[in-house]
Amino acid sequence: MMIHALADVKSKQIGKDTRVWQFAVIMEDVIIGENCNVNCHTFIENGVRIGNNVTVKSGVYLWTGLSIADDVFIGPNVTFTNDKYPRSKQYPDEFQHTRIDKGVSIGAGAIILGGTNIGKYALVAAGSVVTKAVPAHAMVMGNPAKIVGWVDTDGTKMTALNENTFLDKANQKWILNNNELNKQ
Question: If I label 114, which of 10, 128, 129, 143 is the partner at 20 to 30 A Cα–Cα?
């Protein structure tokens, strides 16, 4: 584990080989897994849970109620929220819960509204505004974010054979049924 001398880290629950860079602030009740990279100018609030092999780029603030699985990439200046009706000095009984599943990549400047779940291996394009759940393997973009394609576990866009059948780079077929993509 490497914590830069100019970082303010209160948590004692940071995994092996994780790097925390200058001007990062990590509160006490935060769990960060192994082999993560928390870039400079980040803030991680109490209650946040981060898996293994996660990259959090500069300018990202992670708020209470956020859970991030393994192998997630969060691009620079991604914005998360956790309060649907924020008011100064008025706090909800419980903050919204947001889950980012395994292998998700979120592009720079995207906005993820509280209470939203992003499914495994999904790809959120830079600048997108995610207002509702994103299915596993979906590629979303825009404001509000809409599904524009489907991606393999490594982020490669699948080829559409028709509106419900997709081919990954290993030439395996995937079938779309009720907004859920399954390998055939």
Answer: 10
Instruction: Give the Cα separation of 90 and 99 in Å (integer).
Output: 24
Distance (Å, rounded) from C-alpha 140 to C-alpha 149? 7
Tell me if 128 sits within 8 A of 134, measured CB to CB. no
DSSP state of 174: E
71 pLDDT band (50/70/90 cuts)?
very high
11 - beta bridge partners? Answer: none
Distance CA 36, CA 52 (A): 6
Torsion sign across C-alpha atoms 56, 22, 11, 17? positive
φ/ψ (deg, to 5) at 16:
-60, 140
- Angle CA 109–114–118, to nearest 5: 70
pTM listed for this prediction: 0.96
- Token pair belonging to 143: 């404001």
Contacts 24+ apart (CB under 8 A), 53-61: 57/108
